[in-house]
Design a protein that fits this description.
Layout (H helix, E strand, L loop, with lengths): L4 H9 L10 E4 L4 E3 L13 E4 L2 H6 L3 E2 L13 H4 L3 H10 L2 H14 L3 H12 L3 H19 L4 H7 L5 H12 L3 H9 L10 E6 L6 H10 L6 E4 L2 E7 L4 E9 L2 E8 L5 H11 L6 H8 L6 H6 L11 H10 L5 H15 L1 E2 L12 E2 L3 H5 L10 H16 L10 H10 L5 H12 L10 H10 L5 H7 L7 H11 L12
Parallel strand pairs: 2-4
Antiparallel strand pairs: 1-2, 1-3, 5-9, 6-7, 7-8, 8-9, 10-11
């Protein structure tokens, strides 16, 4: 979109927040870059130029606006919608792969050469993987500076910088303030940060309907790993450098996020996973606009626009839970998962955690694959499917990470005995994040289809749903709302 000058100018002049994250406005006279919705007086047209990413603007010598904070804008919805090389690379960069493994590690995960990845990212985003990772490090550093009392040396290394000098130079270049000045500016009028906890805001594009988003998470919460308490969703996190807990609460205009981490280097990855869990980088205007064109769905969309697809912080965990939930009620699936966690989960090492009910991390696929199958207390058929699934995950035959190829993952799932279409599509929807995953055989979807006048048989409904592509996963959320599904209701405050 950044190449359509007139359209970008119109978005800037109208301060349209829907385009935040789609492109960035750079002002030639001030050398500042902003998000389209910046509250400042727009510059003259001739003084504006546009970039597809914050990294590209920074690389061109522009610094972030202090008013609109473009570095903290919602992410581009393109990385949620697509499964090509650039989208997969961006998801991995967001998860911190370049900081942990370098560009070579990113290339190895994607199965391409570093030269190919560099070329494609530069062509589409105006910056290579190192520049994109650098922009993310700068934003991570800003969050740590503003929301914690960590010494600046600790902030530098936690954000992924190799030296304090590089950290100081980058912060000054990107934000036109030294780290000390940035902390002093942020602390004015704000309460001091709680020791050991980072509190930040997760932005999103309006509208957002939190009912199904938190309703499903609360309805399926596994005791010990997750809980819904006092209007807030709490859960444990398994991260590359250590453990974490998070508390997520919907607020007007943002989601409040409170993180506790055993290693601050996990901050960027934890934020990325929380945004992915809540589908916060979605473009609800585009989704709802297409689904509203169907007269059967229009009343559901108009009643509660902005429904998101609840996803996961760990796709392998989601796959295990999907197998446990085959042909049983939500309550039964929670019971099975809770037993698995109590027997084989990793105890939580964070004192106090984000909530008193959090005690364990969900067991890894490797840990489950190493168990004697007889230790898994469940029906023989489901146990066999679970053993095959965790074996494929642990052995690397089935890849469900942020950089996985959706088509290849689906093909591998289909090859596993015991994994039917419903399970595969649920994993694709919530684990892989495919916005076009569809559940025509789901009982709730079929009941809702019958109530709204849609075809009720899976084959006929699938044919009708062709018009909903590529947003069929969102159509499922609206259909569940017509069936009074637990996933569509706001959770009860407890």
């Amino acid at each position: 979109m950044h190449t359509d000058f007139d359209r970008c100018v119109r978005a800037v002049r109208s301060k349209d927040a829907r385009f935040d994250g789609w492109f960035f406005t750079a002002v030639l006279t001030t050398r500042i870059y902003c998000r389209p919705s910046c509250p400042a007086v727009p510059p003259k047209d001739r003084n504006m130029t546009f970039y597809p990413s914050a990294a590209a603007a920074q690389q061109a010598g522009f610094r972030a606006c202090k008013r609109c904070r473009p570095d903290a804008s919602p992410g581009s919805p393109r990385w949620n919608e697509r499964a090509d090389l650039v989208a997969r690379a961006m998801r991995l960069i967001g998860d911190g792969t370049v900081d942990r493994e370098g560009v070579r590690g990113l290339a190895d995960r994607l199965g391409y050469s570093t030269r190919q990845i560099e070329r494609q990212l530069r062509a589409e985003l105006g910056a290579g993987p190192l520049a994109l990772a650098r922009a993310q490090r700068a934003q991570t550093a800003r969050v740590l500076i503003e929301t914690s009392a960590l010494p600046m040396s600790d902030v530098a290394f936690a954000a992924g910088f190799s030296s304090i000098r590089t950290f100081n130079e980058t912060v000054l270049e990107v934000f036109a303030l030294t780290p000390t000045d940035l902390r002093a500016r942020a602390s004015r009028g704000h309460a001091p940060a709680t020791p050991g906890t980072l509190t930040l805001r997760l932005p999103f594009r309006e509208p957002l309907c939190p009912d199904n988003l938190f309703g499903l998470l609360a309805a399926t919460a596994v005791p010990g790993v997750e809980e819904w308490r006092d209007g807030t969703y709490h859960r444990t996190l398994r991260l590359p450098y250590g453990q974490g807990t998070v508390a997520l609460r919907p607020r007007p205009g943002h989601v409040e996020c409170r993180l506790a981490l055993t290693d601050q280097r996990d901050l960027a990855g934890a934020i990325s996973r929380c945004r992915r869990l809540l589908d916060l980088d979605a473009d609800p205007e585009a989704v709802d606009g297409l689904l509203r064109a169907d007269p059967h769905l229009a009343p559901l969309v108009d009643k509660s626009p902005g429904r998101r697809v609840p996803r996961t912080v760990d796709a392998e965990e989601l796959a295990v839970r999907a197998v446990l939930g085959q042909q049983v009620s939500t309550a039964a699936a929670r019971t099975l998962a809770a037993r698995l966690v109590a027997a084989h989960g990793e105890p939580l090492a964070i004192p106090g955690g984000a909530g008193t009910g959090l005690t364990h991390l969900f067991p890894t696929a490797g840990a489950l694959a190493a168990l004697d199958p007889a230790a898994l207390a469940m029906p023989a058929g489901r146990r066999a499917t679970l053993v095959r699934t965790v074996g494929a995950l642990a052995g690397g035959e089935l890849a469900l990470g942020p950089g996985s190829d959706w088509a290849r993952a689906r093909a591998h799932l289909a090859e596993l005995p015991g994994i039917g279409p419903w399970t595969a599509e649920l994993i694709a929807m919530r684990g892989l994040g495919d916005p076009d995953a569809f559940l025509p055989t789901d009982l709730g979807v079929r009941r809702a289809a019958a109530r709204t006048g849609l075809p009720a048989t899976p084959a006929a409904l699938t044919r009708h749903a062709t018009a909903w592509r590529p947003w069929r996963a969102y159509a499922v959320q609206y259909l569940w709302s017509a069936d009074d599904h637990a996933a569509a209701r706001p959770p009860l405050t407890s």
